[in-house]
Amino acid sequence: MFTLKILFVEDDKVIASGLEYSLVQEGYTVLHCTNVADAKKTINENQFNLAILDLSLPDGNGYDICKIVKTKGDMPVIFLTAIDDEVNVVMGLDMGADDYITKPFRLRELLSRIKSVLRRYDKSEFPKTLFEFGDIKINTAQAKVYKREREISLTSLEYRLLLIFANNVGQVLSRGRLLDGIWDFAGEFVNDNTLTVYIKRLREKIGDDSQNPTIIKTVRGMGYKVGD
Question: Matching InterPro entries, A to Z (predicted)?
Fold first, then answer.
């Protein structure tokens, strides 16, 4: 039977023991590391479906591991940390992290977030492999986005947001609908401001004029839409 494998990096033995036990009880295979060096070795020797990374580690930080994980492929990352400030949250998101949960946390909340993140990476959710609207092309089989044949680099959340628009061309999507599609839960730092930032960044990257957008259009009082 196929089970999902999780890379879990946490140096606090009490937290690690309890969470690892709970993840195994949920049916996951868990490989636990306590520092950056062990995590690097483990990543090179295994393939994972998800990484849960503590931010503060004895020989580095979770950002170091996240960079390595993202070079291996499009694998989801959740940061688990006691640090809860805007700078660290934004830095993690910009690096491609999919979620950020602070200690102390409720176990059921973390398990719910893990399932939400894994659902977002489920390729069966977007069975269509090629989307085109305007000058934009999306190849979901390769997880690549192009504008006039030039590849555009997007973070995992920007890519997810663009896919939601691509699957709903011509439809007005409310801010609530977009937030649900990105996160599937009410995260601590997931709010209208977060969505506004990602809409702005996505417009800039796909070449849309953020002042006079023509691709991702604002429908006043209702939300956003792509296409007529």
Answer: CheY-like_superfamily, OmpR/PhoB-type_DNA-bd, Sig_transdc_resp-reg_C-effctor, Sig_transdc_resp-reg_receiver, WalR-like, WH-like_DNA-bd_sf
Tokens of 143: 């997880």
Phi/psi for 153 (5° steps) reads -90, 120
What is the domain extent for residue 176? 124-226
pLDDT in tens, 155-212: 878 888 898 888 888 889 888 888 877 764 434 445 677 788 889 889 989 876 667 7
Tokens of 69: 């994980």
For residue range 106-139, list pLDDT tens digits in order.
888 888 888 878 877 765 455 567 888 888 899 8
Closest CA to 29 of 53, 65, 5, 59: 5
**CATH number of the domain within which 206 lies:** 1.10.10.10
Global pTM reads: 0.55
The residues near 65 (Cβ < 8 Å, ≥ 6 apart) are: 9, 36, 39, 40, 43, 51, 53
Taking the mean position of all CA atoms in its chain, how far away is CA 192? 17
The phi-psi region of residue 207 (left if phi > 0; otherwise alpha if psi is between -120 and 50; otherwise beta) is left
